[in-house]
Amino acid sequence: MRSATVSAYFTDHFDQISYSDRSFSRDLKALREKLAERYPSLEEAEGDLIRYSKSENRFYYIRDDISAFPSFSEKELDQIASIIDFNKHLFTGGNGNGIVNKLRAISLENNLLKHEDLANWPAIELINEGDRSGSEHVKFLVDAISGKKCIEISHKGLAATSKTKTITGLPLLIKEYNNGWYTGWYLLFQEVSDSQTRISLDKLRLFALDRIETIRLSPTNIKTRIHPDFQPADFFKNSLGLFRGTSAAERVLIRVREDSWIKEYIAKYPVHPSQKTMDTFHYELSVEINEELENFLLRYSTELQVIEPPLLREKVREKLETALSHYQ
Description:
The chain is of the alpha+beta class. It contains nine helices and eleven strands. A hairpin with a 6-residue loop joins β4 and β5.
């Protein structure tokens, strides 16, 4: 619309009688300044980013994917998701996929605003990232991890008898994990002191972020020693899930039932990065044998059979017999 008709337009369409042509010119100028701040190179190349169409009698952005405001447009969200999708190799444990899916979910839900009659329930339900995840600690921890800064945390276990403990150490990695009741974020951490400053995988501990009560930078300046090849993610290398014990990885051979639905699934989505295909129905893993592995095998016991090692096979058989006894 032309500025000369602004007052009449707002009066006719919005019953707004106090918005003058002068106010419109002022706001249009401020909008152009904001655009110039956000897209300086685009303005340099294209000139004015808001233009007037005489034939349509309206002002418009020269591109539909720009905005003077900090919220993302649908196209911007999709562009960010596509960039992350293309660079998923930079993320560990499938985190790139999760971010892509969430960005695209936001874009889809934003797009629902065009409907006049909306369903009164959400179309998409994502993993809860509220209080249980300890998300309020993430920004502080990311900064401390990146800067290799020692911190002091007060942590309380989930058991009713647990007491709050204050620990000083080096935060190394935030691990997102979703498996039943373990949904949430976990902090990989090594306690340090003046006498213990070398960081190593065998000394690391896991803390659930939602069990951390307070967190601050350590008042004591402790210089830690980290080998150049140290990678915190290696802590989980031999584990099927989140937690690891003290035993080394073992060869585990599993067999898929010939008529099972899981036959195609396990080939496309490996149980563990170490998974090797032996033949059409046999798969080999190199993992630590622990409760999480046993629980996984029990969960899919109608589809998978443990062949080796004999001790693991016997453990799973005993647990299945115990479960069966509850139904007799």
